[in-house]
Amino acid sequence: MQRTVRKWLPTEARLRDWLGGGRVTNWLCARKGVWSLHRRALAGGVAVGLFIGLTPTVGLQTPLILAAALLLQVNFPAAFLALWISNPITTPMLYLGFNRLGEWVFADRLPWGWLAGLAPHAQTFVQQSAFLWLGSLLLALPVGAASYLGFIWLWRYTTVRRWRRRTARRRSPYPGTPA
Questions:
Q1: Is the CA virtual torsion 102, 65, 4, 164 positive or negative?
Q2: Rounded to a whole number, what is the largest CA-CA distance in the chain?
Q3: FRET pair for 165, CA 20 to 30 Å: which of 58, 68, 151, 158?
Q4: What angle do CA 95, 100, 105 make, to 5 degrees?
Q5: Residue 156 and residue 84: Cα distance in Å, rounded?
Q6: Angle at 45 between CA 151 and CA 157, to 5 degrees
Q7: Distance (Å, rounded) from C-alpha 35 to C-alpha 9?
Q8: pLDDT band for position 129 (50/70/90)?
Q9: Has residue 94 got a pLDDT over 80?
Q10: Do the Cβ atoms of 70 and 31 come closer than 8 Å?
Q11: Could you tell me if 155 and 43 are in contact, meaning their C-beta atoms sit under 8 angstroms apart?
């Protein structure tokens, strides 16, 4: 699996050339985990990408992904690819679903009395924004955690499967046939 991923990623030298090779580029390339193909860095990148992709942060998603990748030392390309769950086609449906989920769970549980001093349209805007954010977090937190655990499991499964095949080939009396 690592060979497949490594085939698509640029080398550090190519990345430095592409980004210009300045101090910031050198610092970004030197950060451990941001370009790493270690299973935890990749799984963390997928989890961060899905988490940020499932929050209403359109327009800020890429800088948030980069900041989170640097801060948490997770793989940035994996996070960026996972971010595309919220592409321009799916975003309206996701936001409507987040809003409905937030309204369904939190409509009667939040104190809305402090909104009484606002204009009616402002009250509606604040409530709907709160429902949108709360609904997105209700979905983003478990999806991010599940994607991390699922990626770790998938990586382990493919590694063990490869080990078993290699062991079976070594034990086989005839090369190229399973034992």
A1: negative
A2: 83
A3: 151
A4: 125
A5: 25
A6: 15
A7: 9
A8: very high
A9: yes
A10: yes
A11: yes
Whose tokens are 């204009």? That residue is: 119
Euclidean distance between CA atoms 119 and 45, whole angstroms? 42
End-to-end alpha-carbon separation of the chain, Å? 24
Rounded CA-CA distance 139/129 in Å is 16
Question: What DSSP character marks residue 37?
Answer: -
Cα(75)–Cα(82) distance, integer angstroms: 11
Q: Which of 73, 71, 70, 81 is nearest to 46 (CA)?
A: 81
pTM for this entry: 0.77
DSSP tag of 87: -
> Letter for the amino acid at 2?
Q
pLDDT in tens, 110-123: 887 777 778 888 88
Length of the chain in residues, anyone?
179
Residue 179 in this model has a pLDDT that exceeds 60: no
Task: Single out the residue of 157, 152, 149, 158 nearest to residue 3, CA to CA.
Answer: 158
Calpha distance 12→14 (Å, rounded): 5
